[in-house]
Amino acid sequence: MGRDGFISYSHKRDKDLAQALQRGLHALARPWTRRPVLNVFRDTTSLSANHDLWSSILAELEGSRYFIYLASPLAAESRWVRKEIEFWLDNRPPDRFLIAVSDGTVAWDVERSDFDWDRTDALPSVLRGRFPTEPLWVDLTQIRELGHFSLRQADFRDAVATLAAPMHGRTKDELDSRDIQERRIATRLRRGAITGLALLLFTSLAAGGFAWEQRGEALARARVSASQALAARSLELADTDPRKAAQFALYAEQVEPTGESAQALAQAVEANGSVVRHFQGGKDELADFRGAATAPQSHVAMSRDGGTLAYYSDLGDRLVHLYDIRADREMRSLPTNGGLAQNGSAPLLSRDGRTLALEAAYNRIEIWDVRQARLLRTIRASRGEDLAEAGKRLRSFALSGDGRWTAATYYAPAPARQELLLGIWDTRTGKPLFQGAAESEHVSLVFQDEDERLVAVDAAARSTRIYDLTSRRWGKGAAIPGLTTEDAVLHAAEGNPRRALVGSYEQKGTSELWDLVAGRRLVRAATGPVPNAALPADNPDVVVGSHGNAVVLYDAALRRGSTLGAFTWGVTSVAASGDGRWVAAASSDGAVSLYSAPKASASGVKIPKGVQFTRDGRLAYRSSWQEKRTELWLVVEGGLRRLGEIPRAVNAQDGAIAVNRNGTRAALYEDNGALSLWDPRTGRRVDWTLRYDRTPRLSPASLYFLADNVHVVSESSEGILKIDTRTWDVAAVVGEKGDYGLLGMSGDRQTLAAADENLGDIVVWRWSAEESRFRQTRTAAAAGTSARLLGVAVSHAGEKVATVDADSRLTILDTGTGHVVTSSVGAGQGLASVFFSRDARLLAQPFGSGEDSGIGLWDTATGDALGTWSLAAQGAAGPDTPVEVVQAPDGGILSLGGDGSLVRRQLGASEWRATLCSLVAEPLPEEDYDRYLSDLDVTAPCPSR
């Protein structure tokens, strides 16, 4: 169906105004018995996020009668708005171009019969000289500033009528009169209907109220059931298809937040821990392909500098997609003009990602400028269309790191038979540097960038030949006895044939690392074949490969290490940056994903050796007893921020030192029992010091600053004390001796909890800044634990308190209601630390040591376990070294690996949801939606990209 109008505007500035204008055009003069007379299109998706929408926008433009440009300086600068205007002016008369100014200036020069471009800043330059007479335009700048977006507002109504009049084919006065007449008719009918409906309303309210209540209960049960079913499906897919697991988890949380949906989110985040982005999911069309000759292609390629990714799939839109990894944005896609060669080679990128070589049908090589998405030239290796099917593709294919040379082996028509040739071309001119016999169809080609040579590896002869690109001569290579023509595989590091993976899948299969130039074997695989491999050219410690449906990292000895991700179907292609940081992979069903290794959640911060953290995780410190000094760092979201140092060594027990919120004061429990106050920036002690003879002896295990940055709280031999660091006045929070030796402080520094480590009793206080004192808010009796308590934690706003005992059992107290829940006994070696998510919905509990370390996740409402995250991949310092985990300032958790790296993990359903939406923003496929949500109205959980 055609459109009456098309609204073009700046999505960043005028989204609300454009929506109001569209509604106004639809509503003005609409007969009360009919749908809107005008049908005006407004694009609701930012084209800058995905330029592939242009084809659909173009269709709307072609079917529209009028073009309405919502003018502003931002719209004038938008390349997509300019593109829409250029199409319209090239294909439509200018008298159907309407202008509504939302911001900036538009001025007409009568003498020149053109806009006054010295004063006009709301129009793009493409409109220069396009109008012989002044076009129709209205000024909406004041309307936009006042927010008058209703037809009841005279100024907005007048502007809408001005734009709508030519589209209706009437004058503005005629249109306005018609609108008033239609509204009067609708008003009379509405009043009559209201009288009749009022009589029916009273009689139906009672029955309707009961039915509505029943419907609400049934709907609530249906939503919970659907959420649980989606969560269960997500957990099933976590190990085999992390992308779909993320989708199901997101919808489970969207339908109804439950403990099961939180568990699904947590495991989906863990399964996608190394994923930077899922570009496309697998396609069901895979089932339509039959036989090896029609196997669908899915390829990935990556530039050595890690800046550019290219990917293609037969099951996609048949475009070569390009992605700028550094800028995190899609680039212009490349059309496969004549189609890619069936079962052909993967696209090849130069070292800097500026040049792409693509094998096209038949035996042609296309050279593309990646940044401009422009085809530079086409190299015809041979007339492949004249060959038998087996000869209609390149046998091997290579591009030099600088993008200057490309090489291939291929068949060419000959009078009696097909002739196998090897060719080398200059990509700048397309002229051949060499063309001659390939000697064997089992030849693989690898450029050696360092010496400008091409290494031709002949699996049949089990040897190499080397072509010098400077002298243009072939030289003798080396013997490679590990090669075989049977199911041979060869993967070399880009530009570095001195590190290549060779092998076969005969019987059990083998894989070996070879120096192809010297003919020297470097490593024999310890774990069998490594298919679909990529060797980072600048990182000899890593090999990327596949293992079944998974993308796996291998070490320098080809031993299988950590898994980056997995697909529903087998991996068909992998690629890696030169340093091994970025990895891309494709599956046979067209799925494509980008990974970061090590994990993308790593903060990139290396923690100095010997650093310890306080119990609340806010402060990191390192003491030197020989030098009698302590360095201090504040734990921030990005890692650590250095505060300075003080000329004292700190006892190694947690809690011996604390800092205020901004790090300007540090309170230190000294070895002689005194409490001193320091300025970390200068390293000087503040004048007054509280000595042990003025107060009961303090405990170094608990020391916290309150929210006012002045008072500190500590446990002592005579109870819990509050100390004013300005006057050193001491007051008891609770004077009972008891065993309340475990203290916890909320993130906002206003709620204090103490636990009896033997009986398990919990007492909670809330700080009153006005009264400068604590008020007791909750007491919980012993929860029945038989094990000694190890630690206590308080949520950020003090809503909940948790304790952990020696059996790893958690007790969670709701400070508002007094409700207590207890978890089952945790698995593994329990630690004293537990951490709340920012919303207090979840609890994290570190456990274990070395390779067995991890984080348990718990539902604070029920005490149910939500699964675990492994920390083994972080590289623990030793098999008996406990994992060190602290609370991050934003409510997440920071864990310290054995290599000194600080890894940040988000903790909380909302944070996990945001993370997964950044990876998988697409709605659930229609088939899955109908299966789980057919009777429910559920919006997509993620905004579209």
Automatic annotation (TrEMBL):
Residues covered by the TIR domain: 2-166
InterPro entries in the record: Quino_amine_DH_bsu, Quinoprotein_ADH-like_sf, TIR_dom, Toll_tir_struct_dom_sf, WD40/YVTN_repeat-like_dom_sf, WD40_rpt
Keyword rRNA-binding annotated: no
Species in which this protein is naturally found: Streptomyces mutomycini
Name of protein: TIR domain-containing protein
Signal peptide: none
Transmembrane feature ranges: 193-212
Keyword rRNA-binding applies: no
Keyword annotations: Membrane, Transmembrane, Transmembrane helix
